[in-house]
């Protein structure tokens, strides 16, 4: 009976009889060699799980954690700490201190990698007992999962999207912080500091400027590292066309001329929607000839004056904008009416 002291004696016996007894020198108390109620005491805030023996400890990254346990048994039991099916040794940020009555596992400067279940197994010849402890290390989230997708590009805004971090730091992401900067500058400007969506429109961009965007995830612990986008220019999705070919002037009359040109070498990735014709007197200002863009590759310019010298140039237009001007035409010099009849006239020029 447990708790009662006993004396024991032993005698040998063979075919001729039993020999003298040998007794124990002092009473022996009956106890359980490995106590069923070995306790595990954690010197931190705990939360009991559904399993009565399971303990859960939640700490912030960088903390030092101690798991002290009291153990009793006869003979003196041994202690072994295990995580992920690997026995823990006193090395790196792990330290184990064990004596005859207790064992302490210390984890210094915890990181997210230390999150997991730790098993303490106490054993001797009478058997073993295992107690699990679960450690959760909370940290800021990792960077959002890249790349940052540029979904829409215009001269004054862009739409970008990203994916949540692979590691939320052990705490749900509650917010994303979106910033922008021009590549020629060092200063970041906040676009949004209060969105839980993974897509956002970035307004108020300057046409032709190149931008980089970055996104950080935030949880209750803090703000994680950023994910940067590739540099992107705020412009139309397509480019303006290249200039049309050099204009050629023909069919000249006393007050007009027909100007012809060829298509640009490139439409910029978007169909050409029209052409704009300009004229000027030599050394004068360029004046637009057609009020609205024309689709044809020629246009009749009227309103010319006798004795003036003119040259013409052409622009091509698409959804992205207007091209640079074509090379100017050869000048029409000294436009003159030299002969007039009832139904015709003769025009000369240099």
Alpha-beta classification = mainly beta
Strand order of the largest sheet: 8-9-16-15-11-12
Average predicted confidence as pLDDT: 87
**CATH fold field value of the largest domain:** Immunoglobulin-like
CATH level-1 class of the largest domain? Mainly Beta
Task: Please bin the fraction of helical residues.
Answer: under 10%
Largest sheet at a glance? 6 strands, mixed
* CATH architectural label of the largest domain: Sandwich
Alpha carbon gap, first and last residue: 134 Å
Quaternary structure annotation = single chain
Outline? rod-shaped
Query: What low-confidence regions span 5 or more consecutive residues with pLDDT below 50?
Result: 36-53, 344-349
Strand content: over 45%
What is the count of DSSP helices, taking H or I runs of 4+ residues? 0
- SS elements, strand count: 33
Q: In CATH, what is the homologous superfamily of the largest domain?
A: Immunoglobulins
Can you tell me the number of structural domains? 3
Organism: Podarcis muralis (Wall lizard)
Domain Fibronectin type-III: 1-33, 143-237, 243-338
InterPro entries: FN3_dom (IPR003961), FN3_sf (IPR036116), Ig-like_dom (IPR007110), Ig-like_dom_sf (IPR036179), Ig-like_fold (IPR013783), Ig_I-set (IPR013098), Ig_sub (IPR003599)
Keywords: Immunoglobulin domain, Repeat
């Amino acid at each position: 009976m447990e708790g009662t002291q006993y004396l024991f004696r032993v005698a040998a016996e063979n075919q001729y009889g039993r020999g003298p007894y040998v007794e124990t020198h002092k009473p022996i108390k009956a106890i359980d060699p490995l106590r069923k109620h070995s306790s595990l005491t954690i010197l931190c805030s705990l939360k009991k799980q559904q399993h009565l023996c399971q303990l859960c400890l939640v700490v912030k990254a960088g903390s030092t954690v101690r798991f002290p346990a009291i153990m009793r048994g006869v003979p003196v039991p041994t202690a072994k700490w295990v995580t992920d099916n690997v026995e823990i040794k006193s090395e790196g940020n792990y330290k184990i201190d064990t004596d005859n009555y207790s064992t302490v596992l210390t984890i210094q400067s915890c990181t997210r990698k230390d999150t997991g279940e730790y098993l303490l197994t106490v054993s001797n010849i009478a058997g073993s007992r295992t107690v699990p402890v679960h450690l959760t290390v909370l940290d800021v989230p990792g960077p959002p999962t890249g790349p940052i997708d540029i979904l829409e590009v215009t001269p004054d805004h862009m739409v970008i999207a990203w994916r949540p971090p692979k590691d939320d730091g052990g705490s749900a992401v509650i917010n994303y912080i979106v910033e922008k900067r021009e590549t020629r500058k060092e200063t970041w400007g906040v676009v949004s500091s209060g969105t839980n969506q993974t897509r956002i429109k970035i307004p108020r961009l300057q046409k032709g400027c190149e931008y980089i965007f970055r996104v950080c995830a935030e949880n209750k612990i803090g703000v994680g590292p950023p994910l940067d986008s590739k540099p992107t220019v705020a412009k139309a999705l397509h480019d303006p066309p290249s200039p049309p070919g050099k204009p050629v002037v023909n069919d000249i009359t006393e007050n007009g001329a027909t100007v012809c040109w060829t298509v640009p070498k490139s439409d910029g990735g978007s169909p050409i929607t029209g052409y704009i014709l300009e004229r000027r007197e030599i050394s004068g200002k360029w004046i637009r000839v057609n009020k609205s863009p024309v689709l044809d590759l020629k246009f009749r310019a009227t309103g010319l004056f006798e004795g003036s010298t003119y040259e013409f140039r052409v622009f091509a237009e698409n959804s992205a904008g207007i091209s640079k001007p074509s090379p100017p035409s050869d000048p029409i010099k000294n436009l003159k009416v030299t002969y007039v009849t009832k139904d015709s006239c003769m025009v000369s020029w240099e």
